[in-house]
Model the fold of this input.
Amino acid sequence: MYVGALDQGTTSTRFMVFDHGGSVVAVAQQEHEQIFPRPGWVEHDPDEIRRRTTAVMQDCLAGAGLAATDLAGIGITNQRETTVLWDRSSGEAVHNAIVWQDTRTADLVAELSASGGQDRFRAKTGLPLATYFAGPKIRWMLDHVEGLAARAEAGDILFGTMDSFVLWHLTGGPSGGVHVTDVTNASRTLLMDLNTLDWDDDLLAAMGVPWAMLPEIRSSSEVFGEATGPAAGTPIAGILGDQQAALFGQACYEAGEAKNTYGTGCFMLLNTGETLVPSTSGLLTTVGYRLGDQPPVYALEGSIAIAGALVQWLRDNLGLIESAPEIEALAGTVEDNGGVYFVPAFSGLFAPYWRSDARGVIAGLTRYVNRGHIARAVLEATAWQTREVLDAMRSDSGVDLTALKVDGGMVENELLMQFQADVLDVPVIRPTVSETTALGAAYAAGLATGFWSGLDDLRGNWGEDKRWSPAMDDAERDREYLQWKKAVTRTFDWE
Done:
């Protein structure tokens, strides 16, 4: 027997199958279109994603010669905050999904912040008011799609982050689809109280979101329903937002353990156990995971909007490279960044600043600078942003990390990983299975169906693949970090 994981990400959807040791048995993946209707707007076609979901499940199972009966369960992990509204009767989306990076709700966020400031809802939600989260995106669609608000009040329109949308369709859609989400995704809406783990009347009223459209909030690991389609009859038994899934897949089950995922964005999570740790340093307090009826495990998170997406931008918008992996060789043609710092505030700045008015800058350009320096500055941007988040985590938690577990597509970049260790001044460790997001979702489903017996079973699967140790002089690190900080200030107040 095996366990499947559906990983619905920002740029692609994939289905992966894992064995009991946590090794990848099979994978199929398809990209979907990134839609940019206006500057700062980012959308996906939910119906395209739904088709991709069915296709990758079918391709993965067929390619590996597996049947649905070979799967003990399926877990779902998803790009968080991306918001879909759909018709309960037809199952069709009423508008393109508004992606987590989208900034169109800036005016609404400013309006909500006018009374009580950016931290107006932080005590309940653990979140600042920002365009990042799902609640304002729901409100925007209700305000801008004709007749939608009345239909939502009447219960004809359903809301979900991508986990809910995919699950509802996988379990029957208009014919009995299960409308639920898990605590990790619900904690990213600005609508759930972290203490009660339920939707909150005051938050819903402030945001103008009707109860009738909301999914039921459940744990991250339990049987939600049975799949239809390519994996018909298989229990769907795990849901985790992608970054919490990576925390779970990295076996960060003890308070003080942390991981950093390098994907489209970059996300560092620190397990704080059953303790809610409020942030005073620009981090998010979020639910890490909840297993069945056990108490929830909380986390502090530093969210960075643009990491791997900056490499894609260099490839697609500037044409400096033909494929993402080429950036390492190009950056390796120079010894340092030539004095260049690239702050990719394309969607404003997330942690620890939360500045939706910021826009990207390249600072320190001279005639000396060449393509290699730009490429190196692109990679270093991810490492410096991570350093800022780690500083905030130390401040909030009082925990000094002794090492950082890393995962995601960019961890194959040796130059970046070494530079990351250098600027953090702690070892950086890559696990044997670097696709920990899908693995975390599989773990949640496998625990719920008895495929794995408990957390010790999962800890035994984690193995170290490679370690990078810091090798940068303290004075050089401090000098460069000051230059990075100076470059960040140049992005403020642009919009």
Observations:
- The chain has a mean pLDDT of 93.
